[in-house]
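Ligand-bound model needed. adenosine monophosphate.
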Amino acid sequence: MNYINADLHCHSVISDGTLSPEELALRAKSNGVDLWSLTDHDEIGGQERAIKAAQLVGLSYLTGTEISVSFAGKTVHIVGIGFDHLQTNLVAGLQSTRGGRDERALEMSQQLERVGIKGAYSGALKYAGNPELISRTHFARFLVDTGVCSDTSEVFRKYLTDGKPGFVEHKWATLGNAVTWITQAKGVAVIAHPARYGFTPNEEYALFSEFKEHGGKGVEVITGSHTSEEAVRYADVAREFGLCASRGSDFHSPTESRIDLGTLPQLPSDLTPVWSLLANNIH
Ligand code: AMP
Ligand code: MN
Ligand code: MN
Ligand code: MN
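Prediction:
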């Protein structure tokens, strides 16, 4: 197959990115992306805009989302690609899973208040383009802009992560639900950035096996969150589990993201790209 510059993972202001779907489409096009997907966290409210924007700049498009899942005591992200974004179970499932974010944000703010950081909830909310999708990223931007931390990675080192002030354990979707919502809507489910979770080998084996049993088909091998060694490792895992491979920058912002849209290395040529399963779903 001829080489395709696919970027199937990024975020807009509809979740925790800083650019609009239209700005992302333009940026993807000018960076040489051929096939694009906008994968906002737990949200598909930007899909119509992304489809239209992609069409306008002459970019092939697959619908997308990134679903937060609770698995083995951690949060795992499942990317869904190429689904029917009007399918009712998917729309309702995503709405229910993002429903708990506001209460979580209030609790995060209370914890931060106890360590002397005031007004974090209302502060973070100002950064959220979509109030239903208030996320740790918006808190991180607030903590940087108010001078509490010098950058977002310092925020996540000192706050908002397990054991630190501002971390609130949350019950997200189950793995089975997330994969089923995506596949029932005729999309493909993909395990996002597997190296990020810090699972034991047993937990990781359980994740990949259960994901396959539920009908999951792909894994991100080339992502902005992987080192080149991790990409080699998860290419092997894709071969071992017979999964297709995906590629996505996980771009959030021109000033915060290390990897820009469309600038990652290619997938290893022996792996089957996830988009080969979705030829009929491209806009
Ligand atoms: P949430 O869905 O509210 O738990 O927020 C998760 C988001 O926080 C992720 O999608 C990333 O955008 C961001 N994030 C998580 N960990 C880090 C980190 N160590 N550095 C920068 N951003 C992070
Ligand atoms: Mn994010
Ligand atoms: Mn993620
Ligand atoms: Mn992401």
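Residues 101-114 form the longest helix (14 residues).
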